[in-house]
Design a protein that fits this description.
CATH topology of the domain at 15-26 and 36-68 and 77-150: Rossmann fold
Shape: globular
Number of helices: 3
Low-confidence stretches: none
Helix content: 10-25%
Mean pLDDT: 94
Bound molecules: guanosine-5'-monophosphate
Radius of gyration: 16 Å
Number of strands: 10
Largest sheet: 7 strands, mixed
Structural class: alpha/beta
């Protein structure tokens, strides 16, 4: 991978510190409960894997897959469900874990889908928030980092060709 094309925006050490704090907070909030954590694939897998290792509670993991990007770097606004959960969510406390919120269209769609299954509660945590690009108001419990309007990848997010998810840092393409 050619590192001349990008700048490190958030280092692996900062990511891990942010997640550790969020994990502590969620451990307190959900103390005594058995929750379902749903990473939104594909981008949310790495954040979720680190987050659950910082949560000291009983939890199950289910996966939802959504795609809105294709090969482009702009949201099409169209959300496709690529993978669905297998456990019933009715009456469960659900924590949805997403990599990044941009226009908000993907999360709005996925939250509506989960709510239609009557969970006892639904909270959404996101790693990154690009507030400048929001098109719809979306309910987010916590975001770990606010970022500027730049295309980012690494730490689970792809560089728009499906590569780059394995970088431990979050990097931004140079303008
Ligand atoms: P939204 O529906 O909020 O516009 O976009 C959410 C989805 O768009 C995310 O799940 C992610 O897949 C993708 N996305 C938004 N911004 C970026 C970005 O800067 N980099 C990458 N790799 N994906 C992004």
């Amino acid at each position: 991978m050619n590192s001349n094309n990008w700048d490190v925006l958030i280092s692996s050490a900062r990511i891990q510190e942010g997640i550790r704090k969020l994990g502590l907070e969620l451990t307190e909030i959900y103390s005594g409960k058995k929750i379902v954590v749903i990473p939104l694939l594909r981008g949310g897998f790495m954040f979720a894997a680190d987050l659950v290792r910082n949560m000291n509670i009983d939890l199950q993991i289910e996966f939802l897959g959504a795609a809105s990007y294709g090969e482009q770097t702009k949201s099409s606004g169209e959300v496709r469900l690529t993978l669905d959960t297998t456990l019933p969510l009715s009456g469960r406390d659900v924590l949805l874990v997403e990599d990044i919120v941009d226009t908000g269209l993907t999360l709005t769609y996925i939250q509506k889908l989960i709510k239609s299954r009557n969970p006892a509660s639904l909270r959404t945590v996101v790693m990154l928030d690009k507030k400048a690009r929001r098109q719809v108001d979306v309910d987010i419990y916590r975001c770990v980092f606010d970022i500027p309007d730049r295309f980012v990848f690494g730490y689970g997010l792809d560089n728009s060709g499906g590569f780059g998810r394995n970088l431990p840092d979050i990097v931004a393409i140079k303008d």
